[in-house]
Every structure is written in C-alpha cells, then in structure tokens.
From TrEMBL:
Residues 316-323 form the Cytosol aminopeptidase domain. GO terms for cellular component: cytoplasm. InterPro entries: Leucine_aapep/pepB (IPR011356), Macro_dom-like (IPR043472), Peptidase_M17_C (IPR000819), Peptidase_M17_N_1 (IPR048816). Belongs to the peptidase M17 family. Gene3D superfamilies: Leucine Aminopeptidase, subunit E, domain 1, Zn peptidases. The keyword Manganese applies. It comes from Novosphingobium olei. This is Leucyl aminopeptidase family protein.
Amino acid sequence: MTDRNALIQPDHGQSAIALHLVDKASLADWTKTLNAGQRSALAAQKFEGGAGEVAIVPDGDGWSAVGGVASTASLSSWCLARLAEVLPGGTYRLAREEALGGEGTGVAPALHGWLTAQYRFDRYRKEAKAVEPRVLLTKAVKAIEPSLAEASAVMMVRDLVNTPAEDMGPAQLEAEARALAKAHHATVHVHAGDTLEHDYPMVHAVGRAASRHHAPRLIELEWGDPAHPRVAIVGKGVCFDSGGLDIKPSSGMALMKKDMGGAAHALALAGLIMGHGLKVRLHLLVPAVENAISGNAFRPGDILRSRQGLSVEITNTDAEGRLVLGDALTRATEMKPELVIDFATLTGAARVALGPDLPAMFARTDETAAGLLRAGLERDDPCWRLPLHDGYREWLKSDVADLQNSPSGGFAGASVAALFLDRFVGEAIDWAHFDTFAWRPAGKPGRPKGGDALGLRAAWGFLLERFGA
C-alpha cells in the first residue's frame, strides 16, 4: 500500500519531472516558449488547454507534462487530480509554482486532489499491476500537513463506506472510535446490547433484531480541555439497512452498506479536530445499529419511548435513521454544547432534490448556515441549504403518540426528517444537520466511484473559522 504521507514532499531541488499548468487564456503565450518539436507533440495530442486535459512533451533527453486547468490564477482542489491519475509513477514538480494560484492560497488547494486521486480501495483485491505512486514536490511547505490531514480524513470516509456490512458493523465502528481515542488520548464509553433499552430505547429498538455479532451500541468519545467550547459531532451509524419489516426491494438494499456514511463523516471529522488540536471540548456520538429483520424486530404501529421522553409512533420501519439519531442528539444536547453538527445518509428526498453531489444542509441560524456554505465553496465541497419550515411540523403529529417517524404524502421529505431531529435538539442550541449521500455513482478526477466524503470539508473549514485555525 502506498504511504499517503509520502505523496507530497517539500521541494529541496530534488530531481523531478516538470509539470506545466496552463489554461485556455494562457496557452498561446506558453506555446511560444516551446520549440517546434514540442509544439508538434502538443498538436498531435490535440491539447487545447481545457480543464482536465493532459499531454506529454519532449524535454531534452526526457519529457515533461502539461495539464489544462480552468484558471491558473485560481486553482481548485481538483485541478491536479487528472494528472495524478494518468501520469506514470515518479516524482514531479510544478513549473513556475510561485506564479500559480494568484496572491491568495496559491497551489495549496490543488494538493488535495493530487492526494485523493491516488486513492485505491484494495482491501478485497490485488491489482494485476502495482500502481506506482506519483510524488509531488512543492514549495508550499506549510500547506503539506493540512492537505495530508484533510485528504486522509476523506479517504477514511471512503474506506469505511466502501467496506461491506459484514466487516463494518457496529462493533467495527466502535473499534474505529477506540483507535481514534488511542491515537489522540481521548476517552470512549460504549452502551451496547440490551443495556441500551433503558437509556437509549430508540437505538435499542432499531438494532435489537440484529445478530449478537452486530449488536447495537451508542458510542461516545470525549476529548479536549473541558474549559473550551463544547462541540458535539453526531453520525448516523446504520451499518446495513434492510428497511426492517417495511423491507426494501433488493435494488434498494444494494448500496445500504453506505447507510453508516454519517458515522464515517463524524469519525473523520473528529480525527481532524483532534489531530489539529482545535481548542474545543469534543463530544463524538455514534449510534451504531443494523436495521435487520427477525422475530423481535420493531414493527409498524409500535410506539417507542425516546431518551428525551417523547413517544414516537412507528409508521415506517425504513425511517430508522432519525430514530437512532434522536436518542444520540438528546444525549449530545444534555451536555449543553455550544454547537451540534450531525451527519446522516437520511433521506432519498434530499437526493431527488439535490442529486448525488450536494449534501442537503439544515441549520437553525442564518449565521451558521452562511459559514458552512462559505467554507464549502472555499474547499470545493459545496452544500445546499434546505429549510426547517415551521409549517411542516404539523405533519409529524400522531393520533396516538407525541409524533410519528414518517408522515405519509411524501412532500418535503428531507425537511420533515430534519424537523423530526430538531425535536430532539435542546432549545437555543446552535445545530446543523447534513443529509449526505456519502457515495459517488460516477467517478470524477480525484473522486472515484464509491464511498465519498460530502460535507466533511465544509464542516471542517467552518470549525476552523469559528474556533480558530
């Protein structure tokens, strides 16, 4: 396996192949610096400077590469990704690096795509031919460590989501949390199995039908100085979702290994917070369950008690994620945090509205929403705000309980699910909710098909801005 930390190195003048970045506006002037043979090589490859185009040109006794980008004055996270995917293994450096990226962040954003483009999920297969690493030398030394941290967090999400449910059940999510805790000197507390029934009754009800091998649990991790602002990060950890007794069709189960994508995001974000040493008191909560089917599965029509005390009528056992999150959010807000952020692969309605690329984001305050949107754009991890519309709260009313978990009608499904969660977050607590897909149905440079982090970098940028870089 390639050492990811070796893929970007400080440039101390080592031998390397030159990488030239050009855009359509600068292509003509740049080609004037080439000799006739080099210009002929470009023409033969039909290189026109478009974003994502790659060409090889002869350079003395060797060769150099040229990549097209949207703008050399403002580099994106993905402008080097195609180069990192298609170039041969070796060591490279950006030509005229100091002139790239304008006077803002320079080449720093582009380092992310160079790293994530070399991600491979190879746990269950061996490549027919080993892929040699592409190493990039850079003078942006201060950007190396943050870029490695963010890329490692993204790749952690990919690894967790791509792993099938048999090998990524509640126990494995607990192991991931314990590994983070060990690495960063945090503490972990876990309620598991039937011990959940009293304190976390909705987590227990959803997960009780699973085998002992996949017994439900509520995972808590705490880290940081208690004097610092308390921040709670919550992630939905439904490790496989059959739909329960309201069973999904086989086509609907095909990707349900990814229903713990919220937990993957939460774990990765916790790792970023602790690795950076952010001055917060971190409280990570992951309700980890498998929504299985057996004789003791919870049923449509059941009325569940929640940790908060609200009763919930079950109108759809396939709307289980909001149930386990309800108990976890209640626990989070009992500790009076300054901010709560949760991640969940919660609704198909969010995907219908926004497609696979944009996570739906809900926030109680305009200030927090604006900060998350801004951070997402700055990190090429855009999200889109959907409303917590008060007029839809009445749809959660039940004739026999305090609320129901899944209203009929199908309107505004993502907003109604978020409003359900809102009932379990304490009043006056700043709260943001990401309804993320955690999956890419088609690959893009730096973003292969499969599990992916969507909203993670937006949340991380927001936390850095709010609590100090």
